[in-house]
Amino acid sequence: MQLKKYTDYGLRILMYLASYEQVGEGAKLATIKEICATFDLSANHVNKVVHHLGRLKLIETRRGKHGGFLLAQAPEQISLAFVIRQLEGDEKWIECENPYCVAMPACELKGIVARGKELFYQYLEQYSLASLMVQAPQLREIFTVARGELN
């Protein structure tokens, strides 16, 4: 199994925002341009992911000349299972009906994989965005260098 690039980008964006350890008023606002420069991603992809994260109420977006986006919740409140399930979509991992698989009447694969999927998400429930931020100062430095903004 491999996560979609869309999900990967969403997790990167959340980590980037969490590296600033600020939520709410007075927090540093990130921009699409900044994210694209940091991770070498296309603005089109980042726009879509940021919009989705906003709809999920994980980030807050602000319009205008000095606009941008920031975390809408504390990193401890953002479950990795929730983020990944939402960005991946909760589709079946095994599709037996389309096209129809002749083995379906006697096959155990669908049930086994479905159980594995649930165990995967149960495992991720133990972790939040904060779990990814153990080395936040180092991440912040890495992101700054990646953007080309050496201090």
Strand content: 5-15%
Order of helices and strands: HHHEEHHH
Q: Looking at CATH, which topology would you report?
A: Arc Repressor Mutant, subunit A
Beta strand count: 2
CATH superfamily: Winged helix-like DNA-binding domain superfamily/Winged helix DNA-binding domain
Helix-strand category: mainly alpha
Organism: Pseudidiomarina maritima
Keywords: DNA-binding
InterPro entries: Tscrpt_reg_Rrf2 (IPR000944), WH-like_DNA-bd_sf (IPR036388), WH_DNA-bd_sf (IPR036390)
GO cellular component, one term: cytosol
Structural features, described:
Keywords: DNA-binding. The protein is mainly α. It has a single domain, classed as Winged helix-like DNA-binding domain superfamily/Winged helix DNA-binding domain (Arc Repressor Mutant, subunit A), CATH 1.10.10.10. The chain is 48% helix and 5% strand. The protein is built from 6 helices and 2 strands. The chain has a two-stranded antiparallel sheet with strand order 1-2. Helix 2 packs across helix 6 and helix 4 crosses helix 5. The longest helix has 16 residues. It is elongated and about 60 Å long.
